[in-house]
Design brief:
The protein is of the alpha/beta class and about 500 residues long. It has 20 helices and eight strands. The radius of gyration is 23 Å and the shape is globular. InterPro entries: AB_hydrolase_fold, Peptidase_S28, Ser_carbopepase_S28_SKS.
Length: about 500
């Protein structure tokens, strides 16, 4: 059994782009919050064929560059892309809802191929389905070109979550006015970073969004609310639960890699050959980085029915039965089980869309999306705490600006979240799969009667947002059903309030 290597290659490239700019003492970076599992152009055509793309029509909104200033340059416009599916909509006279999915750090083309929850449930609600692309990604790039938009801090400085939320607000108002759908309630949805945006949008723009479904949204992984090693602790738990011997093999493999690499004169050459790297390794840390990210990606996207963590562990544990008893042979068998044995592994070629998307997330994590993810001695990985000082220096060297690690909690909150949100927040679903390492920074308990948490023990990153499949397990079907019932209650209450308002005397 083997697991497709394409999603892994995407996220692995993210990891390597980040680490190549870091000082030797700080290799831990902020993993991308992608909801799509790392889809690349190599398998995009297949996914698009299955996404009913013909039901979506593409539109462009003349978006404002800067929503928060009144300087002359703030009024520059750019074309922001959004897609609408009218197939199931009941029309404006029915006050049928609008499902608005917020794009995150990827082009809409990739998101639309994977995300199916809004469309799968549109017929039930007679809903209009809208997908909005995040600024600076895909086709929604200001200043005429990506090269110009990303040129320096003066042009890239308009690239942040607050501007993105204001973009979504303008587009939703425009859609409702254009379609004469002022009475249609809006439900905003998002996965991962997009899930954070959805929950924040409900809090910042309650007059525009009736409710929000935030899938795998680690809104508490900022400003040291969540322990640094939460992310890697969940990964370790995933592997230990799959196999104790697999966990122990991985734990003991890191010094063994260094030992082989330091053996003269051909240590790195031996490792390159054994792990079939696409290019010769330059250091043992390079191989360790590849392996670390493979385990990370397998845990974050441990989707049924394969469950990639189990796939890797089956390869590692099965090596002994085939006569491979040394640690690195077992690790190698785990790599082959996950990535297959028909091509070179690690440090292979990338494509332009990967580089563009990674460039955007690099900026976001170096400005406001500062998640202090590190690891101590309690995980199966080498100890390496998050070093804010080194991280900030690298970001300043690259962009000429210093990260703002406290800004997210200043602007959106997060500390004492239950105490705060139960008093003024409402109509938010936080969904998480507990196999997802980012669930460690998610909301895992109800904050009030209407800000609820739905968790699944075997769920992974944004799994509930993906297109429904016949192979989906019963617990996933039930999770989605619970989410649908809650959204239905919001809309029913809205329609009741709307009727009461219409019948009330002036």
């Amino acid at each position: 059994m083997k697991h497709s290597s394409l999603p892994f290659q995407w996220l692995l490239f993210v990891f390597l782009i980040h680490t190549t700019c870091l000082p030797e003492t700080q290799s831990i970076t902020i993993p991308r919050l992608s909801a799509n599992g790392g889809t690349t152009l190599k398998n995009q055509a297949t996914l698009m064929a299955a996404s009913d793309i013909e039901d979506f029509k593409t539109f462009y909104y003349n978006q404002t560059l800067d929503h928060f200033n009144y300087r002359q340059e703030s009024y520059i416009n750019f074309q922001q892309r959004y897609l609408i599916n009218f197939k199931y909509w009941g029309g404006p006279n029915s006050s049928a809802p609008i499902f608005a999915y917020f794009g995150s750090e990827a082009p809409l083309d990739l998101i639309l191929s994977i995300i199916g929850f809004p469309t799968d449930n549109a017929a039930t609600f007679n809903a209009l389905v809208v997908f909005i692309e995040h600024r600076y990604y895909g086709e929604s790039v200001p200043f005429g070109s990506r090269e110009e938009a990303m040129k320096n801090s003066s042009t890239i400085g308009y690239f942040n979550s607050a501007q993105a939320l204001a973009d979504y607000a303008e587009i939703l108002i425009h859609i409702k006015e254009t379609l004469q759908a002022q009475k249609s309630p809006v439900i905003v949805l998002g996965g991962s970073y997009g899930g954070m945006l959805a929950s924040w949008f409900r809090l910042k723009y309650p007059h525009l969004a009736l409710g929000a479904l935030a899938s795998s949204a680690p809104i508490l992984y900022f400003d040291n609310i969540t322990p640094q090693n939460g992310y890697f602790s969940v990964i370790t738990k995933d592997f230990r639960e799959a196999s104790e011997t697999c966990y122990e093999t991985i734990l003991n493999s890191w010094p063994e890699i260094d030992t082989v690499a330091n053996s003269e004169p051909r240590g790195l050459s031996i490792l390159s050959q054994r792990f079939n790297t696409c290019q010769p390794l330059k250091s043992s840390s390079e191989l360790k980085s590849y392996l670390e990210e493979m385990y990370t990606h397998a845990a974050q996207y441990s989707d049924p029915p394969l469950y990639p963590v189990s796939v890797i562990c089956s390869g590692i544990d099965g090596a002994s039965s085939s006569g491979s008893d040394d640690i690195l042979s077992k690790i190698q068998e785990g790599v082959v089980a996950y990535l297959g044995n028909d091509s070179c592994k690690f440090n292979g070629p990338t494509n332009a869309i990967e580089e563009e998307t990674l460039e955007g997330w690099e900026w976001q994590s170096c400005s406001e999306m500062v998640m202090p993810i590190g690891r101590g001695n309690e995980t199966m990985f080498p100890s390496e705490p998050f070093d804010l000082s080194n991280f900030s220096k690298r970001c300043n060297q690259q962009y000429g600006v210093w990260p703002r690690p406290h800004w997210i909690t200043t602007y959106y909150g997060g500390h004492d979240i239950k105490l705060i949100l139960q008093r003024f927040g409402s109509n938010i679903i936080f969904s998480n799969g507990l196999r997802d390492p980012y669930s460690s920074g998610g909301v895992l308990y109800n904050l009030s009667d209407s800000i609820v948490a739905i968790s699944t023990v075997n769920g992974s990153h944004c799994l509930d947002m993906e297109r429904a499949k016949e192979s989906d397990p019963e617990w996933l079907i039930q999770q989605r059903s619970q989410e649908i019932d809650i959204i239905k209650s919001w809309i029913e209450q809205y329609h009741a309030d709307l009727r009461a308002s219409s019948n009330a005397p002036n």
